[in-house]
Amino acid sequence: MDSGESDRTLAEVGEFGMIGRITRARPESAGVAVGPGDDAAVVWAADGRVAVSTDMLVEGRHFRLDWSTPHDVGRKAVAQNAADIEAMGATATAFVVGFGAPADTPAAQVDALADGMWSEAARFGAAIVGGDLVASPHWVVSVTVLGDLAGRAPVLRSGAQPGSRIAVTGQLGYSAAGYALWHSGIDRFSEFRQRHLVPQPPYGQGRAAAEAGAQAMIDVSDGLVADLRHVAEASGVGIDVSTEALDADCRLLLGAAQAVGVDALTWVLGGGEDHALVAAFPGPLPAGWREIGHVVDGPGRVLVDGAEWRGYAGWQSFGTPGDGSLG
Amino acid sequence: MDSGESDRTLAEVGEFGMIGRITRARPESAGVAVGPGDDAAVVWAADGRVAVSTDMLVEGRHFRLDWSTPHDVGRKAVAQNAADIEAMGATATAFVVGFGAPADTPAAQVDALADGMWSEAARFGAAIVGGDLVASPHWVVSVTVLGDLAGRAPVLRSGAQPGSRIAVTGQLGYSAAGYALWHSGIDRFSEFRQRHLVPQPPYGQGRAAAEAGAQAMIDVSDGLVADLRHVAEASGVGIDVSTEALDADCRLLLGAAQAVGVDALTWVLGGGEDHALVAAFPGPLPAGWREIGHVVDGPGRVLVDGAEWRGYAGWQSFGTPGDGSLG
């Protein structure tokens, strides 16, 4: 029985048919020597090095298909991987994608997922160069990103020095606010709810930070305090965050925080998945960055206004319910 | 309640604790500038290009934990990705791994999975440079491999020319035989059963083929006829396979084929997952390759002894039960 093109399933279209559909008529990228369709892609790496990172998103854990459209899921998967590359001071150039889904998944949803990936990647001139499409009881999206350092040294987590300024670019707490709003069934504050579904990392700022001499950098995927702790421990330094410097961030969230009944500072300090960038600078900050603290002597730990932070610190996989994770 | 180190679960060890365990004390690799532990790894790419490919393995679909040990699964995931790089005429240098598993998974199983990946990668001098560890209702292993072309042109599927010889290196039908033996509960012929769990691609032969002037190449992941069809269609040529040339391959499988009650040729022509390499050569074959047919004029199709092959051709995801797929 043949159904219309618009409501065919993955099983009806088939693996190779589906791959043909989602790779057809995509824009060419100057960074790609061999695109999808062979045993491997070949990507230019004029720098002589390539940065590489991977993230896996599991339905019910990292996204919910009753909250997110497939297009949102595609954008999120690309955005959060690109943010890891930004956090090295590099620029994302190419992605490969593993996608698992049930055989009865509408092919149109797979089209939308791929379109979301391409549209997010197009924001910084990157391409999807390959992938794997398999049967799975639930959706799994595994994205690997390649990045270009353009001759610069990678900005690691381990280089922060006492006396440097800690600065951030991008939003803090938007995703956590959005998650709480979705969870509470509050349909106002659409910007936060949308940011929970599709983070918007500050593309280009990783490179700007590297060019400005950033000593250490990370993207805020687990939460500001949790991610700064990674930097503090890797660098063997203390990082002291000023809540006064985060007032403006808190004010942006105030209405939503009151609607949900929480302290906005909890979202700013503990909320992950916005993929803001936070870095240590020994000198002047690049445009678009705001100072939120400074580096002090070790041991490796994070202080808030000079004291240990005892609130919610951030996400870990395999966490227990109530830790802010989905499902 | 604290249980012994040996029977702790992923939830008890935690994401970061587990990542620490599986990345500790691994061998250094000359190809890696920045290893695991930062936002991204950095891999050397002196060639100025990098080959990249990805595969996703889903429990119950691509492996069964009642047949395979976690160590087997790790080796298989790395081997099949490395084979894709071999099929470009390149050498695998580095891997990143996404792994999803239930929170109650024994941490020792994750250790074994990682050990399997490292031991397989060590066979060709590559390293695991990064990954992501997440909660998932069942095991999902997503591996991305980077490869080095060392200045050579990539060997694509599209370059086969009429008159060239088709040759293969590596085993044909071992994995299919093993699958049938497992499925039938026959515990003899352990070599085939083990090859189904852990394929052994002919590492180094991809590069040897490229250096010998291979015009087109692919690894046998879906089945010999199915994969040659990809080459035939991409190249716009016919490929004529000789069953007489495959006699030796069939003889190796004869005992197992009789035990299961099938024609060994079905496994040789249709069985995938051995990750043998098959290529078109205009001139002499490199050492270790055996001729199995030749390239004829188009249209793009595969012939067996000059006639269309009507038997089982190979694997596709989302296939129906009975197509040789698991689950």
Automatic annotation (TrEMBL), chains A, B:
<feature type="binding site">
    <location>
        <position position="221"/>
    </location>
    <ligand>
        <name>ATP</name>
    </ligand>
</feature>
<feature type="binding site">
    <location>
        <position position="315"/>
    </location>
    <ligand>
        <name>substrate</name>
    </ligand>
</feature>
<keyword id="KW-0067">ATP-binding</keyword>
<feature type="binding site">
    <location>
        <position position="273"/>
    </location>
    <ligand>
        <name>substrate</name>
    </ligand>
</feature>
<dbReference type="GO" id="GO:0009228">
    <property type="term" value="P:thiamine biosynthetic process"/>
</dbReference>
<feature type="binding site">
    <location>
        <begin position="131"/>
        <end position="132"/>
    </location>
    <ligand>
        <name>ATP</name>
    </ligand>
</feature>
<comment type="similarity">
    <text>Belongs to the thiamine-monophosphate kinase family.</text>
</comment>
<comment type="function">
    <text>Catalyzes the ATP-dependent phosphorylation of thiamine-monophosphate (TMP) to form thiamine-pyrophosphate (TPP), the active form of vitamin B1.</text>
</comment>
<feature type="binding site">
    <location>
        <position position="53"/>
    </location>
    <ligand>
        <name>Mg(2+) 4</name>
    </ligand>
</feature>
<dbReference type="InterPro" id="IPR036921">
    <property type="entry name" value="PurM-like_N_sf"/>
</dbReference>
<dbReference type="InterPro" id="IPR016188">
    <property type="entry name" value="PurM-like_N"/>
</dbReference>
<feature type="binding site">
    <location>
        <position position="39"/>
    </location>
    <ligand>
        <name>Mg(2+) 4</name>
    </ligand>
</feature>
<feature type="binding site">
    <location>
        <position position="222"/>
    </location>
    <ligand>
        <name>Mg(2+) 5</name>
    </ligand>
</feature>
<feature type="binding site">
    <location>
        <position position="54"/>
    </location>
    <ligand>
        <name>Mg(2+) 1</name>
    </ligand>
</feature>
<feature type="domain" description="PurM-like C-terminal">
    <location>
        <begin position="161"/>
        <end position="253"/>
    </location>
</feature>
<feature type="binding site">
    <location>
        <position position="62"/>
    </location>
    <ligand>
        <name>substrate</name>
    </ligand>
</feature>
<dbReference type="GO" id="GO:0000287">
    <property type="term" value="F:magnesium ion binding"/>
</dbReference>
<dbReference type="InterPro" id="IPR010918">
    <property type="entry name" value="PurM-like_C_dom"/>
</dbReference>
<feature type="binding site">
    <location>
        <position position="84"/>
    </location>
    <ligand>
        <name>Mg(2+) 2</name>
    </ligand>
</feature>
<feature type="binding site">
    <location>
        <position position="84"/>
    </location>
    <ligand>
        <name>Mg(2+) 4</name>
    </ligand>
</feature>
<protein>
    <recommendedName>
        <fullName>Thiamine-monophosphate kinase</fullName>
        <ecNumber>2.7.4.16</ecNumber>
    </recommendedName>
</protein>
<keyword id="KW-0418">Kinase</keyword>
<dbReference type="InterPro" id="IPR036676">
    <property type="entry name" value="PurM-like_C_sf"/>
</dbReference>
<keyword id="KW-0784">Thiamine biosynthesis</keyword>
<feature type="binding site">
    <location>
        <position position="132"/>
    </location>
    <ligand>
        <name>Mg(2+) 1</name>
    </ligand>
</feature>
<dbReference type="GO" id="GO:0005524">
    <property type="term" value="F:ATP binding"/>
</dbReference>
<feature type="binding site">
    <location>
        <position position="55"/>
    </location>
    <ligand>
        <name>Mg(2+) 1</name>
    </ligand>
</feature>
<dbReference type="GO" id="GO:0009229">
    <property type="term" value="P:thiamine diphosphate biosynthetic process"/>
</dbReference>
<feature type="binding site">
    <location>
        <position position="84"/>
    </location>
    <ligand>
        <name>Mg(2+) 3</name>
    </ligand>
</feature>
<comment type="pathway">
    <text>Cofactor biosynthesis; thiamine diphosphate biosynthesis; thiamine diphosphate from thiamine phosphate: step 1/1.</text>
</comment>
<feature type="domain" description="PurM-like N-terminal">
    <location>
        <begin position="37"/>
        <end position="147"/>
    </location>
</feature>
<feature type="binding site">
    <location>
        <position position="55"/>
    </location>
    <ligand>
        <name>Mg(2+) 2</name>
    </ligand>
</feature>
<dbReference type="Pfam" id="PF00586">
    <property type="entry name" value="AIRS"/>
</dbReference>
<feature type="binding site">
    <location>
        <position position="157"/>
    </location>
    <ligand>
        <name>ATP</name>
    </ligand>
</feature>
<feature type="binding site">
    <location>
        <position position="219"/>
    </location>
    <ligand>
        <name>Mg(2+) 3</name>
    </ligand>
</feature>
<dbReference type="Pfam" id="PF02769">
    <property type="entry name" value="AIRS_C"/>
</dbReference>
<keyword id="KW-0479">Metal-binding</keyword>
<keyword id="KW-0547">Nucleotide-binding</keyword>
<dbReference type="InterPro" id="IPR006283">
    <property type="entry name" value="ThiL-like"/>
</dbReference>
<keyword id="KW-0460">Magnesium</keyword>
<feature type="binding site">
    <location>
        <position position="39"/>
    </location>
    <ligand>
        <name>Mg(2+) 3</name>
    </ligand>
</feature>
<keyword id="KW-0808">Transferase</keyword>
